[in-house]
Amino acid sequence: MNDKRHIPLDGEKAAPLSEGERPTLKTIAFMAGLGVTTVSRALKDAPEIGQATKNRVQLIARQIGYRPNRAGVRLRTGKTNVISLVLNSQSEIMGLTSNLVYGISEILAETPYHLIVTPYSPENDPMQPIRYIFETGSADGIIMSQTEPSDPRVRYLTDHNFPFATHGRTRMGIEHPFHDFDNEAYAYAAVKSLAERGRRRIAMVAGPSPAHTYYWHLDDGFRRGLQESGAAAVPLDHWNGTLSLTDVRNLTEIFMREPNPPDGIICCTGGLAVAVVAGIEATGLKLGRDVDLVSKQTTNFLQWFRPEVIVYNEDIRHAGRELARAVLRRIEGVDPTQLQSLSYPEADQGERIGISSR
Amino acid sequence: MNDKRHIPLDGEKAAPLSEGERPTLKTIAFMAGLGVTTVSRALKDAPEIGQATKNRVQLIARQIGYRPNRAGVRLRTGKTNVISLVLNSQSEIMGLTSNLVYGISEILAETPYHLIVTPYSPENDPMQPIRYIFETGSADGIIMSQTEPSDPRVRYLTDHNFPFATHGRTRMGIEHPFHDFDNEAYAYAAVKSLAERGRRRIAMVAGPSPAHTYYWHLDDGFRRGLQESGAAAVPLDHWNGTLSLTDVRNLTEIFMREPNPPDGIICCTGGLAVAVVAGIEATGLKLGRDVDLVSKQTTNFLQWFRPEVIVYNEDIRHAGRELARAVLRRIEGVDPTQLQSLSYPEADQGERIGISSR
DNA sequence: ATAATTTTCTGTAACGTTTCAGATTATATC
DNA sequence: GATATAATCTGAAACGTTACAGAAAATTAT
Fold first, then answer.
1. Which of residues A320 and A302 earns the better pLDDT score?
2. Would you call A244 and B116 a contact, using CB atoms and an 8 Å cutoff?
3. Residue A229 contacts strand C, CB under 7 A
4. A357 interfaces chain B, CB cutoff of 8 Å
5. Residues of chain B neighbouring A97 (CB-CB closer than 8 A)
6. Most buried of the four, A28, A63, B11, B96, by CB within 10 Å?
7. Cβ within 8 Å of residue A245, ≥6 positions away
8. Rounded to 5°, angle at Cα A187 from A185 and A191
């Protein structure tokens, strides 16, 4: 079979005398005595290239450490091999950004994709980075967080058929890839664990964001839990959307001094829990005795802070992995309904590891 | 002057009938009745283009929302307009990654640069991502952390004259751009504040990384502080390099139970402080009474944890900004010695804001 | 008015890749 | 042995940009 090599005559093709230069298809073509087209196809295992040739070309490519020029591919095909992570640079739940980044990177590391991080400050329009990426075609897919029940970004990208995945769900009748923590299940479990401890008057500090979808899931789970356990909800009025932790602490203090304070509180982030604990303790009440606190955390630290806090963990790194897988598969054309996943609250085992000290 | 427009004849040039397509130089050239070369130059204010033409071209470009195609520029010029942030995905000091990213992004937002994040897992060779970026030319500059006193990455990039900036200094006789927190000043200030409170036997938990440069700076400041204040160092033997926080807690407990325990401890990260406090309290000793603790933190949370801890802040977002500015200027050819900066410990004001609750 | 000079503009080529439409060679068919 | 068919391979063109060398027009000098 095709054993005769095509020996190139001297000067038949411009010899790429590239010493130290990065090898290109031309380099390989020259070395193999083939055309660049053939090489290009051989490297991607095209069926119209002979097996022997493919092996030969691939061997050469491997030997000289050929790596396709991203700009060349991108210019010709429009494929960027980039995933863009778009997030709000303000609202940092402890370790959220880093773990998302690391989780996504774990998946992308085995692909040709690079990860571009595109933060936007809260005073800017959240649509702006989205439009930019779409209009300039600077990524093949987008991962975004801070999802809202009716999210214009989701509408825009869906309308334009641009691959994306959201951290969090929407409620707008559009099927799209997402990964979400099951906050309904969390709030439900939280109520149950309080009820188990005999707590009957329960309040939930759901974070200052009824704008975000998770608020409603929490609320659903909260209600379901109350219903089943027969405990009463203690409403937190006037806790508007833009509270600092200090505000939360002070409000908690006022709140706990009112007649009939709650004996169980549910927090949706570790940050809130810290502030709420400070407020509780300012009134002289004692955690675990007078009042129990359940909190979700994304980084193992509440146990160090107050071991009495009942903790559920949300694994953000896992979310990052799921989101990365989802966009990649969406880019491949997989149906959005196949790319929706939830993760569930993990009751903390009380292990005191996790905040890396390095 | 030059008022006569060059009116293109019908069909003189291939009319780019691009409806909905992204505008390119060709589009503008067609609209302006000019050559693409002229347009290209007009957009970058080249001196050989008439002022009137420049204005006209720039107006058109603005109107139709022209944005240069990154792949085109990159292929032609080799300029990627990308900065790569290379970091260890394991060693996460609270909020370090996110704040670095946000700080860098703040600066890059006003430039054409994008930020690619390239984490590497600790089991991989730290040189690998560096080589990849250099060999594939996938960025114009690198920002990296986890700097070591004799850092092979610094040597490699310097040898290859590739722009970079490090978070942390080296001690290898190479002048390179860096930004660093003045750990010497911090350790010194920490000793002084302990001495002020009458503490005489001081130990330092400098983190498990004598491999990293900052360890030595801490040590320098520690010694200087002791010398000036006449306090004694309590050595921490057998605290080897890979301790979990639980290990730290347990070691602290053992340590504090030995005869003549320290009455002042200095921690170099908030994570360590948490574990050390837990160890101290396990022995029944009381913070602020029996022993004082000074810690550095990169996120406001120690005050919430134990208000007794004496806190100094390290502003990582600021570090990100400085590092971004440094690489950018290095890319422009500015001398490395001009691109070295330090930031100084800020004694905490005790404000209880900073952990965003959103 | 003509030549010399400056100013302003232009087409071509190249960066590295893939797609298209063929071209060449080998193999099978009659 | 000629022809059809399949299997391999190929050059040219294009993606959008910039560098180069040069052309055309306007201005100045003679």
1. A320
2. no
3. no
4. yes
5. 97-98, 101-102
6. A28
7. A271, A272, A274, A275, B304, B352, B353, B354, B355, B356, B357
8. 115
Query: Exposed (0-12), middle (13-18) or buried (19+): which is A90, by Cβ within 10 Å?
Result: middle
| Cα A151 from Cα B217, distance rounded (Å) | 49
* Cβ within 8 Å of residue B196, ≥6 positions away: none
DSSP letter, residue B173: S
Angle at A287 between CA A283 and CA A292, to 5 degrees: 115
| Closest residue by Cα to residue B103 from B319, B298, B314, B300 | B319
- Tell me chain B's radius of gyration from C-alpha atoms: 27
CB B147 within 8 A of CB B125: no
Check if the beta carbon of residue B83 is closer than 8 Å to that of residue B143: yes
Q: How far is CA A309 from the centre of its chain?
A: 26
Q: Mean pLDDT, to the nearest integer, of A180-186?
A: 96
Q: How far is CA B332 from CA B117, B154, B178, B318, in A?
A: 22, 19, 16, 21
pLDDT tens, residue by residue, B114-145: 999 999 988 889 999 999 999 999 999 999 99
H or E element in which residue A247 lies: helix A245-257
A92–B98: do the CB atoms touch at under 8 Å? yes
- Tell which residue, B39, B45, B104, B115, has the closest CA to residue B80: B115
Asked if A115 has any chain B CB less than 8 Å from its own CB, the reply is: yes
The dihedral sign for the CA sequence B65, B71, B75, B79? positive
Question: Which amino acid, residue B195?
Answer: A
The pLDDT tens digits of the residues spanning B244-260 come to 888 889 889 988 999 88
CB A106 within 8 A of CB A319: no
Q: Which of A80, A102, A271 sits opposite B356 (nearest CB)?
A: A271
Give A35 CA → D2 C1' in Å: 31
In whole angstroms, what is the distance from residue A320 CA to residue A105 CA?
A: 8
Single out the residue of A353, A324, A281 nearest to residue A163, CA to CA: A324
Report the share of chain B in percent with pLDDT over 90. 71
Residue B180 in this model has a pLDDT that exceeds 50 = yes
Q: Does B117 touch chain A (CB under 8 A)?
A: yes
**What is the Rg, in whole angstroms, of the alpha carbon atoms belonging to chain A?**
27
Q: Which residues of A31-62 are buried (b: 16+ CB within 10 A; e: fewer)?
A: bbebeeebbbbbbeeeeebeeebbebbbebbe
Helix (H, G, I), strand (E, B) or coil at B271: helix
Question: Which one, of B104, B88, B343, lies nearest residue B217 by Cα?
Answer: B343
Q: What is the mean pLDDT of chain A?
A: 88
Place of tokens 């923590």: A181
pLDDT band at A349 (very low <50, low <70, confident <90, very high): low
Q: Is B87 on the interface with A (CB under 8 A)?
A: no
With cut-offs at 50, 70 and 90, classify the pLDDT of residue B240.
Answer: low
Find, among B28, B72, B65, the residue nearest to A78 by Cα.
B72
pLDDT given for residue A4 in this prediction: 28
pLDDT tens readout for residues A26-74: 999 999 999 999 999 999 999 889 899 999 999 999 999 999 999 999 9
- Any residues with CB less than 8 A from the CB of A242 and at least 6 apart, and which? A208
* Cα–Cα separations (whole angstroms), residue B13 to B8, B18, B26, B34: 8, 14, 10, 10
Q: For position B310, what pLDDT does the model report? A: 95
The model's pTM is: 0.91
| Chain B nearest-CA residue for A240 | B358
**pLDDT, tens digit, for every residue of B288-327?**
999 999 999 998 888 888 999 999 999 999 999 999 999 9
Two structure tokens written together for B170: 């080296």
